[in-house]
């Protein structure tokens, strides 16, 4: 006899199981501590040697570009920290730090099970959904901080993604305004929201400042699409490449890596029809720095690389029209226009079907009209705080928060307090 459990029920049962296991581990740990205390004749050490002062958690290696500058800064200051990753091939695992320890803690639910019982003072992560999905607050953790990994709206997480963090480290005031409105709507206690900036953008800018602009080269257009049915290559494909090759520009095509997995037949067809030549090159390198530096304009869709190109490399973007459904995101709760989309029209021009016949004219406008340079300056002011000093600001805040909490532990909202406030 077979039983069917739908995915929603299965997820709920698994979450309950994780909660029960976490509680059991916590209880057993307390029993062990009491036994050690009794066997030592009632003597206790002043400090818990197993407690982590600063923990960084990432569910994927792709966020190492955000965390590396922070780990480097912790290392520079001699701060003991642990970087916990759910990716077995995370580049962090190859780092040779003296003060920052890196550790692979398993993939998927195994990683969350470890995090749910972690003993740490401050936990920093880009992973949303604390207390919403499998990731639960550990009873032995004092403070949970979320840090953004790209310059966009803080409401573009799945619903309730940031509600149960004690602090959210942001990049622009518009994000603070968004989250304050959500807190008021949901009756949540006020989180701390320091403007620390974007460590990975700082690192990218530092690289560019060190090597300088690209040597003289033909005017180059970078086609950097995302993947999926709304991606540029799916929507325009051959027609877009044919139109670009009719211009005098050099063309670089850098597809999303997932396209070569999920859209392999399409990629095989396009690369066969448009092979590498002196006019067109396909780029699949792990590091996109070189192609961003060599490009004068970018054509993309909804990929975050548009902001890297505009803010750091000071280039205009051409973006495709996309339909965006806010239904599953925190943005659904607010009537405000999303900054991510409203700023695009100040960074470049929108690509529509009618523009394919003369896409060269669209690129020329982007390159020549001064309003797009002014738009890039505006975007930097609005979404990139502490330019050049984001990692320092982040570590400053982590250290100051820990010192404050150790002196006044009651200042941290507990898991129960946040649940009570959210359900009131």
Description:
There is one protein chain. This protein is α/β, with parallel strands linked by helices and 424 residues long. The chain has two domains: 202 residues, 3-Layer(aba) Sandwich (Rossmann fold), CATH 3.40.50; 182 residues, Rossmann fold (3-Layer(aba) Sandwich), CATH 3.40.50.12580. It is built from 17 helices and twelve strands. It has a six-stranded parallel sheet, covered by helices on one side. The chain has a six-stranded parallel sheet with strand order 9-8-7-10-11-12, sandwiched between helices. Helix 2 crosses helix 5. The relative contact order is 0.12.
SSE layout:
Elements: H1 7-39, E1 52-58, H2 64-76, E2 81-85, E3 100-104, H3 109-115, E4 120-125, E5 141-147, E6 167-169, H4 173-186, H5 199-211, E7 220-223, H6 232-235, H7 237-245, E8 250-253, H8 259-262, H9 264-273, E9 280-282, H10 289-294, E10 297-300, H11 305-312, E11 317-320, H12 339-342, H13 344-347, E12 348-351, H14 359-368, H15 370-383, H16 390-407, H17 415-423
Parallel strand pairs: 1-2, 1-4, 2-3, 4-5, 5-6, 7-8, 7-10, 8-9, 10-11, 11-12
In short:
The chain has 424 residues and is of the alpha/beta class. 42% of the residues lie in helices and 13% in strands. It has 2 domains: 34-198 and 387-423, Rossmann fold; 202-383, Rossmann fold, CATH 3.40.50.12580.
- End-to-end Cα distance, whole Å, is 44 Å
Helix content: 40-55%
Largest sheet: 6 strands, parallel
Topology order in helix (H) and strand (E) letters: HEHEEHEEEHHEHHEHHEHEHEHHEHHHH
Query: Domains counted in the coordinates: how many?
Result: 2
Low-confidence stretches: 1-9, 30-34, 36-46, 411-417, 419-424
The number of strands is: 12
- Supply Rg: 24 Å
CATH architectural category of the largest domain: 3-Layer(aba) Sandwich
Share in β-strands: 5-15%
Look at the structure and give the mean pLDDT: 88
The secondary structure category is alpha/beta
In the sheet with the most strands, the strands line up as 3-2-1-4-5-6
Overall geometric form = globular
Number of helical segments with 4 or more residues: 17
CATH topology of the largest domain: Rossmann fold
User: Can you tell me the CATH superfamily of the largest domain?
Assistant: 3-Deoxy-D-manno-octulosonic-acid transferase, N-terminal domain
- For the record, the CATH class of the largest domain is Alpha Beta
